[in-house]
Design goal:
This protein is mostly helical and 102 residues long. It contains three helices and no strands. It is found in: Cytoplasm, Cytosol.
Length: 102
């Protein structure tokens, strides 16, 4: 479980790097991989030794910190996509209205 949680942190950092460089297609692909890894981790038994549990906890805290850094950039991108979609829909409506008056 510890190894997989470390992989999750590494994947989260890759997502962060892709978000910062605005390679959103890569962010989407990495996010799918991340979700699959989380599902696998959730199926594993909880470690019984305290040292491993504490190491996993520290990794999870680091993952949460990286997530918190990623979210503003992702939210900004989502707003931009929604605005773009609204403008596209408005343009289609205007074109349709123009064509119906001809």
């Amino acid at each position: 479980m510890l190894r997989m949680t470390q992989q999750l942190l590494d994947l989260t950092k890759e997502i962060q790097a892709s978000a910062e460089s605005e390679t959103w297609d890569n962010v989407a692909k990495l996010q799918i991989s991340r979700e699959n890894l989380i599902k696998k981790i959730e199926q594993l038994p909880t470690p019984e030794d305290e040292k491993t549990s504490l190491a996993i906890e520290a990794l999870i805290i680091e993952i949460q910190k990286v997530d918190a850094q990623i979210m503003p950039k992702v939210a900004e991108q989502m707003r931009a996509l929604n605005e773009n979609r609204k403008q596209t829909n408005q343009g289609k409506k205007m074109t349709k209205a123009y064509q119906s008056t001809r």
